[in-house]
Amino acid sequence: MNCCCPEPNEANNPTITTGRCPQCHNSGKLVDLITLKSLLTPIALAELNPEQIYRFCSETCCSVVYFSMRGQTFTTTDLTVPVFQKDLDEKIPVCYCFGWTRQQIKTTVEQQGPQSVIASITHHIQAGRCGCEVNNPQGSCCLANVKSWALTTPIVNP
Ligand SMILES: [Zn+2]
Question: Is the pLDDT of residue 60 over 90?
Fold first, then answer.
């Protein structure tokens, strides 16, 4: 991170209670600047403060995607991609790197079972092909989301 002059509180206490979303008050997960730089719209990116630490809010009902310790927020309309946690539509990606939407996972699970999807994505991850930090708004690996979606998808035609 580009931190020549970090805020003392932010640098020393990254997990203190100030890591709560200013809108929904749930705690957010630290996210690297590269994720915001990759996924913010040009207009939103112009408001980014690179010396600050940002967190990701994963609450579905909250429109805030990123927030800083100082209360700056970026919402779903500030990103160039839809956010899996914020949009329950089936056309939304679960795996951003390899383009698996909820619908595609559901279809494949119905035809081949959940392990086929999980194995395919795991194979790419192990081969070092994933770029979650620049593709996925949460800034980290999608596999947990893929697994929970694939394993809870009801198999209509077993
Ligand atoms: Zn929130």
Answer: yes
